[in-house]
Amino acid sequence: MTINHQIHLVSRPAGEAVADNFHMVRTRLPTTLADGQVLVRHHYMSLDPYMRGRMNDAKSYAAPQPLNEVMQGGTVGEVVDSKSPAFAVGDKVVGMGGWQEYQVVDAGKPGMLRKVSTEHVPLSAYLGAVGMPGVTAWYGLTQIIAPKEGQTVLVSAASGAVGSAVGQLAKVRGARAVGIAGGPQKCAYVVDELGFDACIDYRQHADLKSFSQALKQACPDGIDGVFENVGGLGLDAALQRMNAFGRIALCGMIAGYDGQPIPLQQPQLLLTHRLRLEGFIVSEHMELWPQALTELATLVGTGKLKYRETVAEGLAAAPEAFLGLLKGRNFGKQLVKLV
Amino acid sequence: MTINHQIHLVSRPAGEAVADNFHMVRTRLPTTLADGQVLVRHHYMSLDPYMRGRMNDAKSYAAPQPLNEVMQGGTVGEVVDSKSPAFAVGDKVVGMGGWQEYQVVDAGKPGMLRKVSTEHVPLSAYLGAVGMPGVTAWYGLTQIIAPKEGQTVLVSAASGAVGSAVGQLAKVRGARAVGIAGGPQKCAYVVDELGFDACIDYRQHADLKSFSQALKQACPDGIDGVFENVGGLGLDAALQRMNAFGRIALCGMIAGYDGQPIPLQQPQLLLTHRLRLEGFIVSEHMELWPQALTELATLVGTGKLKYRETVAEGLAAAPEAFLGLLKGRNFGKQLVKLV
């Protein structure tokens, strides 16, 4: 009999999320699996900004995270027991195991578990550049922004799991990539290591005029596409600098998750610049995942798509690591390592 | 020798546009036309909300209206002299003649003048339902919103030249049409005469909660498409009621033309509802005009597309009629009758 630790959501945030919203629970795994079941030991858990939205009990694109149940989320791990012909002990798998050490999975249900190869791609990358964040970047860039060669793509949260992939995928397509990130260290990483053409430190620009001026310098030919992970001042400034017929892939509004929404100051610019703005959730476009994952795995395997990880150690560290992610304390993809 | 009166823009508005921004000028027409020229006597001039935007000296989709020149705008009239083989005296024509009684046109330039038939369609309708406003409605509805049968389309400024056509075109396609208009008289017209399924009087809803509640009642299945002519509170409320994958055709933001822009209060709803918003200018899609005009003329000719006109008499009445239009004092398409 094996002990399994889980982290549950036990209360909803009133404003800012806090550690007390979470609670660790000790459970037992079943002694034997039923036919078709697989026992997965999680090696890494993914922490993602979208989880904050699900902590609220509000109408959104996904059902709220239920109270007093294990926090949902992506996981990678290894099959340690199997009564499914499709999975053998030792297989490396990607799933939605949630914030816990083990998960019993009904392997027969489609989409529950996917076997992956770690020959050219590290296991943890299947939660990042070759996983949901990478496909998110790929979808927004290729299906909404669709930059032409030489056009300028602006990406907020540019050092993060999604943003870093957006800029590199844009460069592969011959576009100019300009990032927005917090602090000189992240900005240097975005330009020097990821190969963006420029990066703006939003902490240096407290008002719209200053931010807009910085964008003008970084984007001398204007902005043709915005991949928006943040919202707020950066988006307001970007709207001022967009070229006619620009595209905005709206992926996240992290700045507004806590408390009040952040208004868009000049919506009339969407009209005067004839912009197209599209909100999207990558899990609603599963038909494109195979195509996206093939490109992403190839680019990671050949060193053309770089990424960075911030790794918290042990399940108990997950809540604080998640709260830090919401405040931008991570650097690249935020993971929790369990094994 | 013929006298021609014109109205010029002589100053730019500081905030609200006022009558003093305009000035009437008396000019003389040339005694003889050059080869290829046509002299058109204007019967009707079109007054449109977009003209307010051009009065500002700001970056926009069109160059600003130059100072001390005739106000630009659509016109219909009759050829009274011609040195062009393409036009004969007596031809009815649509053009961009501006706020003046006559215009000398270089008829050889493409797009300057279009001959029209008044057999089934009244001349003035070529400035409204079978002209730029009608094509604007057609483009936003069919190319951006593209409603499926049974879906709900919300239209602001629903009794206006564009909005009235949007709702009727939606009904022709089997969609549900819900309007927003100012006052009980306009709302009754929208439902009883134009055949919309419901109409909300925005004057009855001073805050977001009240407006949103009214939309919930008028749109029990949610909103699938918004044709936005106004912006502000109505758009904020509509966002709250939109269904997943809804489309917003952004055509006008009349509420923000004077002075400060009106922020969009909850832009995060664009993401949570996975909406697509597109700003457009119908003059940039000329390739679709023939298709649109064919449908619009057929519908008007067969009585299936109704419209109303507010007609000011004489060139001197144009400034006040235009200022009234900006305040919603017109009812349907605002015209100035010159002959």
Automatic annotation (TrEMBL), chains A, B:
Q: Which GO terms describe its molecular function?
A: oxidoreductase activity, acting on the CH-CH group of donors, NAD or NADP as acceptor
Q: Which Pfam families match?
A: ADH_N_2, ADH_zinc_N
- InterPro entries annotated for this entry? ADH-like_C, ADH_N_2, ER, GroES-like_sf, MDR_fam, NAD(P)-bd_dom_sf
Residue ranges constituting the Enoyl reductase (ER) domain according to the UniProt record: 17-336
Q: Where is the signal peptide?
A: none
Which key words tag this protein in UniProt?
Oxidoreductase
Which protein are we looking at?
NADP-dependent oxidoreductase
* Organism (species): Aquincola agrisoli
